[in-house]
């Protein structure tokens, strides 16, 4: 007897009346019984371990109910498809009309293979780091020494700066000396550091002579404070941020390039900062909160523009496909999991995007223009 789950059937059910979980359980077992031989009876399949525990979640919305049916199986794909079709044949729950639709059948072995491959990549990367040849370490130390000699001092405050800080039309303002060194390592020679929250007069004057000035700051509270001071004292054309929780001095060449590519006007940077601060204070715009309440427990998603106007509403299962079709989407509110794939789609848009999902999955990389919240924290906000 096999106990290894091969497939997971996920179905959505809608009922034209207020029913509870037990009513749906009765419909699932009652309306599938006797359609085929006893070998395909759900109760018998559970007894023999060929299907696992059937999970059913139901939410009542006014005079209707919506829910999800999840059936794990260790059957072959042909029999699993037949079981799925049987579940989709359910047309009544109690005295009410009902509709069941299969949303997906997940091959758990495929997902397991993906996880194993991803983990193997992580193990290999860690292994390679441990086996850095001695010659490479020597070359890195030599490179660091050369880079540090290129750091100059600017103004009476003797601020750390790159060699092109005066001659370049573009200026990148960072927080400290280590940030200047890291950007120099990857070819950015037009940088200068503020070396504290108080903005030196030399930098304020320098920004007025540049065609474009980018503030490139750490993804933390300190970066927020320095941004506020820079905007009050200097001409700033764009704002770039390191990923949340990271510092500019820690970034790789690719991360630096992506952060600068996604630099936004100061007005957008301030709106993002206010949104984050609002979440911390547990305050949420009324329009957004209304949409959060609408999708909670419905397995649906809604795309909104920057003025909270509805762009499109859809089942969660269609979100990944349709999200990319709407470049003007600013807020994505949905009853599902915030995944790395959704984050990557949001990151491809030019402006800040807010993802509000039921929960957050395994998100390893969050670009600075993507902001993530859960529906529960916004629903409970004042």
From TrEMBL:
GO terms for biological process: DNA replication, synthesis of primer. The gene is dnaG. This is DNA primase DnaG. PROSITE patterns: TOPRIM (PS50880). Residues 169-256 form the Toprim domain. SMART domains: TOPRIM. It catalyses: ssDNA + n NTP = ssDNA/pppN(pN)n-1 hybrid + (n-1) diphosphate. RNA polymerase that catalyzes the synthesis of short RNA molecules used as primers for DNA polymerase during DNA replication. Also part of the exosome, which is a complex involved in RNA degradation. Acts as a poly(A)-binding protein that enhances the interaction between heteropolymeric, adenine-rich transcripts and the exosome. Its EC number is 2.7.7.101. It comes from Caldiarchaeum subterraneum. It comes from the Archaea. GO terms for molecular function: DNA-directed RNA polymerase activity; metal ion binding; poly(A) binding. One of its GO terms (cellular component) is primosome complex.
């Amino acid at each position: 007897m096999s106990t290894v789950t091969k497939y997971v059937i996920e179905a959505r059910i809608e009922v034209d009346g207020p029913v509870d979980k037990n009513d749906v359980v009765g419909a699932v077992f009652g309306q599938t019984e006797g359609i085929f031989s006893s070998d395909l009876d759900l109760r018998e399949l559970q007894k023999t371990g060929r299907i696992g525990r059937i999970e059913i979640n139901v939410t009542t919305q006014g005079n209707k109910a919506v829910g999800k049916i999840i059936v794990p199986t260790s059957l072959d794909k042909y029999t699993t498809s037949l079981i799925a079709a049987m579940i989709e044949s359910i047309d009544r729950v109690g005295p009410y009309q009902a509709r069941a639709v299969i949303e997906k059948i997940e091959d758990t072995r495929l997902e397991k293979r993906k996880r194993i491959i991803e983990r193997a990549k992580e193990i290999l990367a860690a292994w390679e780091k441990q086996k850095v040849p001695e010659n490479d370490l020597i070359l890195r130390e030599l490179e660091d020494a050369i880079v540090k000699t290129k750091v100059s001092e600017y103004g009476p405050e003797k601020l750390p700066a790159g060699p092109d800080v005066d001659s370049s039309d573009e200026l990148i303002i960072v927080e400290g000396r280590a940030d200047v060194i890291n950007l120099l390592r990857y070819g950015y020679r037009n940088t200068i550091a503020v070396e504290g929250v108080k903005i030196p007069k030399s930098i304020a004057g320098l920004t007025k002579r540049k065609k474009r000035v980018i503030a490139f700051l750490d993804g933390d509270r300190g970066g927020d404070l320095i941004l506020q001071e820079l905007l009050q004292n200097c001409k700033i054309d764009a704002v770039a941020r390191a990923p949340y929780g990271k510092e500019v001095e820690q970034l790789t060449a690719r991360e630096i390039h992506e952060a600068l590519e996604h630099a936004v006007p100061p007005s957008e940077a301030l709106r993002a900062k206010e949104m984050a601060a609002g979440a911390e204070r547990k305050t949420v715009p009324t329009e957004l909160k209304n949409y959060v309440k609408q999708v909670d427990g419905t397995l649906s998603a809604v795309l909104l523009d920057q003025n909270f106007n509805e762009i499109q509403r859809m089942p969660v299962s269609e979100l990944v496909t349709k999200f990319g079709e709407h470049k003007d989407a600013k807020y994505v509110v949905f009853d599902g999991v915030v995944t790395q794939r959704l984050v990557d789609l949001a990151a491809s848009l030019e402006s800040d995007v807010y993802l509000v999902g039921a929960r957050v999955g395994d998100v390893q990389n969050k670009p600075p223009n993507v902001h993530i919240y859960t529906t529960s924290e916004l629903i409970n906000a004042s």
